[in-house]
């Protein structure tokens, strides 16, 4: 599983970082999230799916 945050959509709601803090990092400058892993470890896949579901902007793309 791969994951990306669409910077155009992200509005800094932070729910992704709460669901999967090992995967999503919030910028100290603008509060927007980035995925800090390219390939999601198997044990974090469900947390990443939960993060994608919880993002109000649908900014998290899983492939
Ligand atoms: Fe951004 Fe959505 Fe996370 S708006 S900070 S990707 S919950």
From TrEMBL:
Q: Which cofactor does it need?
A: [3Fe-4S] cluster
Which residues span the membrane? none
Annotated Pfam families: Fer4_15
Q: Which GO terms describe its molecular function?
A: 3 iron, 4 sulfur cluster binding; electron transfer activity; iron ion binding
Q: Which Gene3D superfamilies match?
A: 3.30.70.20
Q: Does the keyword Nucleus apply?
A: no
Under the heading PANTHER family, the entry gives: FERREDOXIN
The protein's job, in short, is: Ferredoxins are iron-sulfur proteins that transfer electrons in a wide variety of metabolic reactions.
Protein's organism: Rhodococcus coprophilus
Q: Which UniProt keywords apply?
A: 3Fe-4S, Electron transport, Iron, Iron-sulfur, Metal-binding, Transport
What protein name does the entry list?
Answer: Ferredoxin
């Amino acid at each position: 599983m791969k994951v990306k945050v669409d910077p155009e959509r992200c509005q800094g709601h932070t729910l992704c970082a709460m669901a999967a803090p090992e995967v999503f990092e919030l910028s100290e400058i603008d509060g927007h999230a980035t995925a800090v892993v390219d390939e999601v470890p198997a044990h974090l896949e469900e947390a990443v799916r939960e993060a994608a579901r919880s993002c109000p902007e649908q900014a998290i793309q899983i492939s």
